[in-house]
Design goal:
The complex is a heterodimer of chains A (about 325) and B (about 180). Chain A is of the alpha/beta class and about 325 residues long. Helix content of chain A is about 30%, strand content about 20%. In chain A, the strands form three sheets. An eight-stranded parallel β-barrel of chain A has the order 1-2-3-4-5-6-7-14, surrounded by six helices. Chain A has a three-stranded antiparallel beta sheet with strand order 8-9-10, with no helix packed on it. In chain A, strands 11-12 form a two-stranded antiparallel ribbon. In chain B, about 40% of the residues are buried. Classes of the chains: A alpha/beta (about 325), B alpha+beta (about 180). At the A-B interface, α1, β8 and α9 of A face α6, β5 and α7 of B.
C-alpha cells in the first residue's frame, strides 16, 4: 500500500515499429519498449525496429501523451567492436529516452560513466535472478530496475523484490522463454546466430516451412523442429518448442508451444512488490498489440479499482493457441 | 485443437468465391497495380523498411480464388502481377490463406503470427522476405477502404461505378475478416 491507496502496476508494452508504438499508447500502455534497427537489440528481425529519425519522433509522440519510451540495447557487444552499442546508448540519451534496457557489463559501465543521468534498466538478457546478483548491478552501475527472468515463481519474485534495492519488472504475457535468457545457446547451436549476440533467436534466414500433404514440416537449420498435422496449432520454430522423437517416445522435449498469461496473478505480483509488468512481442503486429495491451489495461484498471480482474481469452493471439502461468505457478513439467 | 468454426468464419462465402472465378485477370491486375502505386506513394516508408533486401518474388495465394498475386520486392519499389498458375513464374516465397485473412492482414485486423499458429496462414520459402514484407505493411498502417477511395479519386469521375463496386467488395471481405477476429 502507498499513502494514497493500493499501488498500481506500470504496464510496459512492446513496439517493433512506430505504428505499433502509437497503437500501444492508444491502447493504454504506460511505457513502450523498442529498439534501433540493428543488432544492438534482441529482436533484430527483417523489416522491424526504429531508424534514428523514427525513434526521435516516437519519443516526442510518447512524451506528449504522458507515456515513457524504454530503449532496448540488450545484446552483448561484439568483441573488439563496441561502437554500435555505444552509439545506441549515446543516441538514446540524446533523444531523451526515459531509460535504456541493457545486459552487457561493459555497456552498463559505459552508460553509467558517460551518461550518469540516463536511467538504466537491467535486461532479462542479463539473467540476474538472485538478490546478490541484482544488487551488484545496482551498486556498481546505479541500475534502477531489473527485468526478472521468466523462470522464477511468484514466491521467489517476492523474496527477490524484498531483498533488492531497485524496482522489479516481470513478464506477464507472450512468448515463454523457458531457458535462462542471455545464456541459451540452442539457436546458436542450430544456426550460428543467437539472441544474445545477433538479436535473433531462430533467425528467419535459417527457417523453412514445407507442406507435406496435410502436414506442416518446420525446420531450423539442419534440424526438423516439428511435423504438425492440420488439426494441431503450431508455434515458433525454436528448438525449445520442438516436437521430437526420442528413445523415450515422441513429444515436446523441453516445452510445448504455449504462451504466458499472468493476468490471474496480477494481485499476487502487486503484493509481491513488483513495480511493472511487461508484455512480450516486439515482433508482433498492431492487431496483437491493440488486443493484448487493451486487455491488460482493463485488468490493471480493475485491479486498481478493487474489482474482479476480467479475463477474456487471448489464446487466439498466442503461440500454440493456449496459455499458461508458466514458472510463476511452477506447475508445468 | 483449433476452432473449426473460427477458421470457417475467416473464409470467403462460397457464393462470392464462385462468382469471382470467371472474372478476367487483366482489369483486376490493372486495378490492383493502381492501388499498389497509390499505397506506395502515400506510404513511402513501406519500401524504406525493405531497403537492403535482395530482389524477391513473393506469391500471395488466396486459396478460395483461382488466381495468385505475385509481388516483386526490389530496393526502391514493389511491383505486382496476377497469374492463374505459378508454373511459369518462379517465386522465392509463398503466402497462402483465405482472401479475408490476406485482406485483414493488410488492413491491420489480424496478427500474422497468430494466423500462422492457428494454421489459417501457410508460409513457405524465404521466411526472411515474408517477415520483412509483413512488418513493412503493418507499420504502414494501411486503410484499404481509404486507399481505394483515394486511388479512384485520382482517376476521376468516369470510374465512380467501379469505385462503388470495389468498395462494396472490400467492405464485404473486411466484414468477413472482422467476423473471424475474436477479441
Amino acid at each position: 500500500m502507498t499513502p494514497h491507496g493500493p499501488r498500481t502496476l506500470e504496464l510496459v508494452c512492446p513496439a517493433g515499429t512506430p505504428a505499433s508504438l502509437r497503437t500501444a499508447i492508444e491502447a493504454g500502455a504506460d511505457a513502450v519498449y523498442c529498439g534501433f534497427r540493428d543488432e544492438t537489440n534482441a529482436r533484430n528481425f527483417p523489416g522491424l525496429n526504429f531508424s534514428r529519425d523514427e525513434m526521435r519522433a516516437s519519443i516526442s509522440y510518447a512524451r506528449e501523451r504522458g507515456a515513457k519510451v524504454l530503449i532496448a540495447i540488450n545484446t552483448f557487444a561484439r568483441a573488439g567492436d563496441p561502437g554500435p552499442w555505444r552509439r545506441a546508448v549515446d543516441d538514446a540519451a540524446a533523444f531523451g529516452a526515459n531509460a535504456v534496457i541493457l545486459a552487457d557489463l561493459g555497456l552498463l559501465g559505459y552508460a553509467a560513466t558517460t551518461h550518469p543521468r540516463l536511467r538504466l534498466h537491467l535486461s532479462v538478457q542479463a539473467a540476474a535472478a538472485s538478490a546478490d546478483s541484482i544488487n551488484f548491478y545496482v551498486g556498481r552501475f546505479g541500475v534502477k530496475r531489473v527485468v526478472l527472468p521468466r523462470v522464477l515463481s511468484v514466491a521467489e519474485i517476492a523474496a527477490v523484490t524484498r531483498a533488492v534495492s531497485c524496482e522489479t519488472e516481470t513478464f506477464a504475457f507472450g512468448g515463454l522463454c523457458v531457458m535462462t535468457e542471455g545464456r541459451c545457446s540452442l539457436s546458436s547451436y542450430a544456426t550460428g546466430k543467437s539472441p544474445n549476440m545477433n538479436g535473433v533467436c531462430s533467425p528467419a534466414s535459417h527457417v523453412s516451412y514445407r507442406q507435406d500433404g496435410d502436414c506442416l514440416v518446420s525446420r531450423l537449420g539442419e534440424f526438423t523442429i516439428d511435423r504438425s498435422d492440420s488439426g494441431r496449432p503450431v508455434g515458433y520454430p525454436t528448438l525449445c518448442k520442438g516436437h521430437f522423437r526420442t528413445t523415450a517416445g515422441q513429444g515436446y522435449l523441453f516445452e510445448e508451444p504455449v504462451s504466458l498469461d499472468a493476468r490471474r496473478l496480477l494481485p499476487e505480483l502487486r503484493t509481491a512488490g513488483v513495480t511493472a509488468i511487461k508484455i512480450e512481442g516486439r515482433q508482433r503486429s498492431r492487431a496483437y498489440i491493440k488486443a493484448v495491451v487493451a486487455a491488460f489495461r482493463e485488468a490493471l484498471d480493475a485491479l486498481a479499482a478493487g474489482t474482479a480482474v476480467p479475463i477474456e481469452s487471448l489464446a487466439s493471439m498466442t503461440e500454440g493457441q493456449s496459455v499458461t502461468s508458466g514458472a510463476y505457478r511452477k506447475a508445468w513439467r | 485443437m483449433l476452432q473449426p468454426s473460427l477458421q470457417q468464419a475467416r473464409r470467403l462465402p462460397g457464393i462470392v468465391a464462385w462468382a469471382m472465378r470467371p472474372l478476367p485477370l487483366f482489369p483486376l491486375e490493372f486495378a490492383l497495380v493502381r492501388l499498389l502505386a497509390g499505397i506506395l506513394e502515400r506510404h513511402p516508408d513501406l519500401v524504406g523498411r525493405l531497403s537492403g533486401m535482395e530482389r524477391r518474388r513473393i506469391a500471395v495465394e488466396p486459396d478460395d480464388l483461382p488466381f495468385t498475386v505475385v509481388l516483386e520486392l526490389q530496393e526502391s519499389t514493389i511491383s505486382l502481377r496476377i497469374v492463374r498458375t505459378l508454373d511459369i513464374i518462379p517465386v522465392h516465397a509463398r503466402i497462402r490463406g483465405p482472401l479475408p485473412v490476406l485482406i485483414g492482414l493488410v488492413d491491420g485486423v489480424y496478427d500474422g503470427d497468430a494466423l500462422f499458429f492457428s494454421r489459417d496462414l501457410v508460409i513457405e520459402g524465404d521466411i526472411e522476405a515474408v517477415l520483412a514484407l509483413r512488418n513493412a505493411i503493418d507499420d504502414a498502417d494501411v486503410d484499404l477502404l481509404g486507399e481505394v477511395a483515394a486511388t479512384c479519386a485520382a482517376c476521376g469521375s468516369p470510374i465512380d461505378g467501379i469505385k462503388r463496386a470495389l468498395e462494396g467488395i472490400l467492405r464485404a471481405v473486411l466484414k468477413t475478416a472482422n467476423r473471424g477476429h475474436v477479441q
